[in-house]
Design a protein that fits this description.
Number of helices: 10
Strand content: 15-25%
Bound molecules: zinc ion
Oligomer: single chain
Strand order of the largest sheet: 9-10-11-12-13-14
Helix content: 25-40%
Structural class: alpha+beta
Distance between the termini: 36 Å
Shape: elongated
């Protein structure tokens, strides 16, 4: 299991970009339009039929001439005819870099909005440093792609707004090490930034924030970017660009683990859940009852038959731990275990023999919290009744 697994990127040497401008935002009589699943207000522009100038707001402070000097309505503005709801559009060829967001456990503990906004901010920062200057001609967009029967996929697309491309992205992709270099540059700035001293700072204008584009700022977390980039850059695996296969990116087991973590965090019994990096990665889980638990990942358990559960839950305080209050959790994708049921049973029996509890989950046990938050708590409570009553601290009650 890879904490930042699912990460991938590809260079698209020729991409057709379609740029729409749906008009000024905040206009009340806006038409609602749906583009790529997002609802937009698309009032369009009102322009003069004679000269094409955009109609000025009557209350606008900086009044400029309403018409070109050679416009037939220049001297008789009251007679001007207007074209309403004009949408601007241009289409051009350029190049782009598409990055699939990590979908592993580390990524799941932050959630897609924070992950996407933070990684985008870090990427922009890294590129600025890498190219020693402004990269304003590079645009960053965040895209989500629904998948049938699986978690959504999230991408960041970086594209060159100069038709034909400026060569920046091509140069970057010339060597796969370069992107890791960009991540390292970003990490360096974030880790050493002045805002590092404040544990609550989510970033500042010297690192991940930038002055324009404030819409995503609430989702930007420097901590998230540092966590993910540390994971990606410390990975000794060679990272090279490939073609992203959108249908076949996740292996069943780790996707189920991710879903389990998310469902657990949203369960009504859990007050707070935090991923900790000290030592081996683990989770600190604070129950509504106030009791603290620790959940370790991929723990090797000895016994008659050695095994490695996906998670082991135990009291946070070492002094409170006994085999009887430890629980081994297996999140099994059925397709990977159908052939080895006998072996699995032996492993589980061996754990039970030590006095520990065993909990096995399959796809049907773990609700998809992304599609239905509301039923999650109820389902988890229902499904976990046996195990979680004890988990909440009432094991003997
Ligand atoms: Zn005019
Ligand atoms: Zn900063």
């Amino acid at each position: 299991m890879d904490a930042a697994g699912g990460f991938g990127f590809e260079y698209i040497s020729s991409v057709t970009l379609r740029d729409f401008n749906f008009g000024p935002v905040g206009k009340e009589d806006a038409v609602n339009l749906e583009v790529g699943g997002n609802k937009l207000s698309a009032p369009g522009f009102t322009v003069c039929k004679g000269c094409g100038r955009i109609k000025q707001n009557e209350h606008s402070k900086n009044k400029r001439p309403q018409h070109d000097f050679d416009c037939p309505y220049a001297k008789h503005s009251e007679k001007a005819e207007w074209i309403e709801g004009l949408i601007l559009y241009r289409e051009y060829q350029s190049d782009a870099l598409r990055i699939r967001l990590p979908s592993g456990l580390l990524a799941a503990s932050y959630g897609p909005e924070v992950l996407s906004a933070s990684l985008t901010a870090a990427l922009r920062l890294g590129l600025k440093r890498y190219f020693h200057g402004s990269v304003d001609h590079l645009q960053f967009i965040q895209i989500e792609e629904p998948q049938e029967g699986a978690e959504k996929l999230y991408y960041i697309v970086v594209y060159d707004t100069v038709p034909g491309g400026t060569g920046y992205l091509k140069e970057l992709m010339a060597d796969p090490k370069n992107l890791i270099g960009v991540f390292r540059e970003a990490l360096d700035v974030m880790v050493n930034c002045d805002c590092g001293g404040d544990p609550n700072a989510k970033g500042c204008y010297k690192c991940v924030y930038q002055y324009r584009d404030s819409s995503n700022r609430k989702h930007i977390s420097k901590l998230c970017a540092i966590d993910i980039l540390s994971e990606l850059t410390s990975n000794q695996k060679v990272i090279r660009p490939g073609v992203l296969d959108t249908r076949n990116n996740t292996d069943g087991d780790s996707e189920l683990e991710v879903r389990f973590i998310r469902a657990l965090g949203k369960s009504g019994l859990v007050a707070e859940m935090k991923r900790c990096q000290e030592g081996t990665p683990h989770y600190l889980i604070k129950m509504q009852s106030g009791k603290l638990w620790r959940m370790d990942l991929q723990v090797d358990l000895l016994g008659d038959v050695p095994s490695r559960p996906d998670f082991v839950l135990r009291p946070w305080k070492e002094s409170e731990r006994t085999h009887e209050n430890e629980m081994a959790i297996f999140t099994d994708g059925w397709r990977y275990h159908a052939d080895i049921v006998g072996e699995d049973c032996a492993k589980r029996q061996s754990i039970l023999n030590t006095g520990r509890h065993v909990w096995t989950l399959s796809w049907h046990d773990v609700p998809d919290t992304q599609s239905d938050n509301e039923i999650t708590d109820r389902l988890l409570l229902l499904r976990c009744k046996r195990s979680f009553i004890y988990f909440g601290g009432n094991v003997h009650g």
